[in-house]
Design a protein that fits this description.
By secondary structure, this protein is mainly α. Helices cover about 60% and strands about 5% of the residues.
Length: about 190
Amino acid sequence: MHVSELDRYRAQFEAIGDRAKELAAGLDETRFNWRPAPDRWSIEECLGHLILVGQREVHALEEAIQRGKERGAADSRPFSHGPFSYGPIERFILGQTEPPVRNPRNAPRRFHPLHGQPVTAVLPTFLHLESQFILQAEAARGLDLRRVKVSTPFSRFLRMSLGMMFAQAAAHQRRHLEQATRVFHQLP
């Protein structure tokens, strides 16, 4: 049986949510907020960063999907069931985002999380965010994931295809969950 691209993204977001639950399971506030060094992020900050970025990504996805559906009422080109292929720039961006990290970069200031937030606030918010990504993947069914474009939260000048935006969002989350896992293994 053929698994659609959107079904693969759905499974990725579900797995990411499960991994976040595993990382936070049994952690008290001190351990959840523990930093391996003053300039390194805690598990809480890794998840907080993903929430800040993810909320903007979900909003951008939602807008793009709505525009794609509206255009589709007048023009059949935004609709397709794939398979989809993507250009070299988008594949490069995805490759740079996907773990393992080859070229670490500092997040823009607007995506720096607050430090010291409770696990009881951060984890449910993160899991809600994952459910929002899944809802958007469901809403995108039937759209041409290559033709529908999404504004990225990092630059108003960079637009990615809908499919690559889902892929990049999942890769970005895996990247920071890997970072959080390294912190978890260093916990005192």
